[in-house]
Specification:
The chain is an alpha/beta fold. The protein is built from 13 helices and 14 strands. The longest helix has 29 residues. The protein binds pyridoxal-5'-phosphate. Pyridoxal-5'-phosphate (PLP) binds next to helix 2 and helix 3.
Length: 417
């Protein structure tokens, strides 16, 4: 167990005064919700916005709405993504189909995407993993001519842009997550965005059936945010990090989960979100750019678009082996540097999905699950943390490659798959 300065892998700080203001949100809830909805429409230039209890609830609602517009039942997703995505597909009563990923972009492997689409494909879900933009234009070109909807998973990319347009607004419909560890947070929440009146009408019909979050759950949620605010501080983060019962950083598959409208209290935690989103994303961009500059080019194994438009959530590194990744994570954790793996396995290896998938061989997704490590780039990372992170990765590469070339960080080579 480590005692002392410890960075969380991700952080979107909330000030205590914002939480206190959330108390008034209990009373002014409806007004705060309407205001948040109007601000989101205005900022992201979309006609329709729906506020809901989580990102996975947002996706489940989108899928239910799309399924009411078409007899097709398959949902095509990257074989390496957040486990909440298949959870939402199961919740919506639809079928999960996987397409392998490109380890250099973490996007779909476009050589495989076309072949993965069938007569029964309802929609594809391109994902801006870690805020790295998926090539939505390419996905749209492939999907449009086949009558397949494009649902953009921008859960980790709120505020990021591509060719000047906001991620999350490029597909037929998109969503953000406001959960812990996302670009901005109110503990738990989700945003659905679309410019399609047709899809919005169906979403509205489903949304109208949802109840608001129960009062007890709102109160517990606010206490959770308070605890998060206190312990996110790197001086205190070692405390929750050393409590296995909190299961921090664990990735879960949910057979079921609650679906509510976003509560007014949570909406009021988000007041002033635009300034915070821009400030946090700018800080993340700056730190990520610094990491890209200071890590040897051999370490930038995932193509990292350093453009001013990208809003990275964490900095991905693809190590040469699982052993190398594990070692880097262990050393980083011992030094309190917030190094962390992403999802533990490919979607095809989730035990709860056994029997639900027709194919389970997704070598690139398995490789990413084994070898991907992320470095923190959030606003709590300081200059000396950056120095330590670079020293860790660099020393690691040099040190371990002498004893054991296997564990060196080196560019991913496609021929190695
Ligand atoms: C977090 C996340 C989700 C789900 O959002 P929740 O708010 O946690 O339910 C979906 N997709 C991706 C890529 C995510 O990172």
């Amino acid at each position: 167990m480590r005692i002392g300065r410890t960075l969380p892998p991700t952080a979107s700080p909330i000030a205590t005064w914002q939480l206190l203001r959330a108390q008034t949100g209990m009373a002014l809830g409806q007004r705060h919700l309407q205001r948040l909805e109007a601000e989101l429409k205005d900022y992201f230039h979309v006609n329709h916005v729906f506020l809901i209890s989580s990102g996975k609830a947002a996706l489940a609602l989108i899928l239910t709405a799309l399924a009411s517009l078409s007899p097709r039942r398959q949902v095509l997703i990257p074989a390496y993504t957040c486990f909440s995505v298949p959870s939402a597909i199961v919740k919506a009563g639809l079928e999960i189909c996987l397409c392998d990923v490109d380890p250099e972009s973490l996007d779909f492997d476009f050589g495989l995407l076309e072949r993965s689409i069938t007569q029964d494909t309802l929609c594809a879900i391109p994902t801006h993993l870690l805020g790295l933009p998926s090539d939505i234009d390419r996905v749209k070109t492939i999907c449009e001519q086949r009558g397949v909807f494009v649902v953009e998973d921008a859960a980790q990319a709120m505020g990021g842009r591509h060719n000047g347009s906001f991620l999350g607004t490029l597909g037929d419909v998109g969503f953000f997550s406001l959960g812990r560890g996302k670009n901005i947070t109110c503990g738990s929440g989700g945003v659905i965005l679309t410019n399609s009146d047709h899809i919005a009408t169906r979403i509205q019909a489903e949304y109208a059936k949802l109840k608001s979050e129960p009062r007890f759950s709102v109160t517990m949620g606010l206490l959770g945010i308070l605890a998060m605010c206190l312990f996110m501080d790197p001086r205190l983060y070692w405390i929750p990090a050393s409590l296995p019962i909190l299961r921090l950083g664990e990735t879960n598959f949910y057979n079921d989960f609650p679906m509510h409208r976003l509560s007014g209290a949570r909406a009021s935690v988000l007041l002033g979100w635009r300034e915070r989103l821009e400030k946090f994303n700018a800080a993340r961009r700056l730190i990520a750019r610094e990491l890209v500059r200071r890590l040897p080019s051999g370490n930038q194994m995932v193509r990292f678009p350093g453009g001013a438009q990208v809003a990275p959530l964490r900095m991905p590194l693809l190590m040469a082996s699982k052993r190398a990744k594990d070692e880097l994570c262990v050393r980083g954790r011992a030094a309190g540097l917030g190094t962390s793996p992403l999802y533990p396995t490919a979607i095809s290896a989730i035990p709860e999905l056994r029997g639900r998938l027709t194919r389970t061989d997704f070598p690139a997704a398995a490789l990413v699950a084994d070898c991907l490590v992320t470095l923190p780039v959030h606003p709590l990372v300081r200059g000396k943390d950056l120095d330590a992170l670079c020293a860790l990765v660099n020393a690691f590469e040099v040190g371990s490659s002498q004893e054991n070339p296997e564990s060196a960080a080196r560019p991913f080579s496609r021929t190695g798959v």
